[in-house]
C-alpha cells in the first residue's frame, strides 16, 4: 500500500465517522456514508477501476467520470440547501407574524 492510499483511506474514514455522528438520527444518511466510504476505499485500492467504469459509460477517463459525478452531487447539495433555507425563512416569517398578531392583541387599545 502506498502512503497516499493510507492517508486517503484515513481521511475518508474520518469523514464517514463524522457523517455518522452528524446524521445519528437518520439511518439512511448513515448508510449512505458507509457505502460512500466503501466505494472510495475500493477506488483507492484499485484506481484503474474508475477508468474501466468510465469507458463502459462512454467517458474517456475515470478522473472525468469522478468530476462529473462530483459536479452533479455538488449541484444537488446546493439545491437541497437552498430549499431548506427557503423552508426555514418561511417558518420564521410565520412565527414572527404570529408573534406580532399576539402582541398586537395583548396591548391595550385606547
Describe what this molecule looks like in 3D.
With 110 residues, the chain is mainly alpha-helical. It folds into two domains: 46 residues; 51 residues. 85% of the residues lie in helices and 0% in strands. The chain has four helices and no strands. The protein is elongated and about 80 Å long. The mean pLDDT is 89.
Record the SSE blueprint.
Layout: H1 3-22, H2 27-45, H3 48-56, H4 62-106
Helix pairs in contact: 1-2, 3-4
How many whole angstroms does the radius of gyration measure? 23 Å
Order of helices and strands: HHHH
Number of domains: 2
Q: What is the beta-strand fraction?
A: under 5%
Main sheet specs: none
Strand tally:
0
How many helix segments?
Answer: 4
Instruction: Bin the helical content.
Output: over 70%
- Straight-line N-to-C gap: 82 Å
Unreliably modeled segments: none
- The shape, in one word, is elongated
